[in-house]
Amino acid sequence: MDTTLVIDNISQRGEAYTALLQAVKSRGQAALHGTERYLLFEAADAMLFGETEASQKTIAAEAMLENLASSDRWTRSSVQEISRLLSAIA
């Protein structure tokens, strides 16, 4: 296994994680309720650290994001941006 590829992958995933944190922070504290923030960052953490529950947590986070769009709390483009960043961590 090429260690350069592994390091690059970890670096890219870390950058996506940081971008996700910044994107959520830029929306302000009130943009997500505590449980919503928890779901999102639990999924992000699980993917970043390769936890076995990562896919289940990601499904829950994606459902929460979809609810934000369908309830008109967030725009569809905002949800897509956060979803894209979340997926990039995997």
Shape: globular
What's the number of extended β-strand segments?
0
Q: What string, H for helix and E for strand, traces the elements in order? A: HHHH
Termini separation comes to: 19 Å
- How many domains, in number, for the residues? 1
Q: Given the helix and strand composition, which structural class is it?
A: mainly alpha
Describe the structure in your own words.
The chain contains 4 helices and no strands. The protein has one domain. Helices cover 78% and strands 0% of the residues. Helix 1 (3-26) packs antiparallel against helix 2 (34-48), helix 2 runs antiparallel to helix 3 and helix 3 packs antiparallel against helix 4. The protein has helices at residues 3-26, 34-48, 54-70, 76-89. The longest helix is centred in the first third of the chain and has 24 residues, at 3-26. By secondary structure, it is an all-alpha fold.
Notable features of this structure?
mainly alpha; 0% strand; globular
Helix/strand layout:
Elements: H1 3-26, H2 34-48, H3 54-70, H4 76-89
Helix pairs in contact: 1-2, 1-4, 2-3, 3-4
Sum this structure up briefly.
The protein has 90 residues and is mainly α. The model has no long low-confidence stretch (mean pLDDT 90).
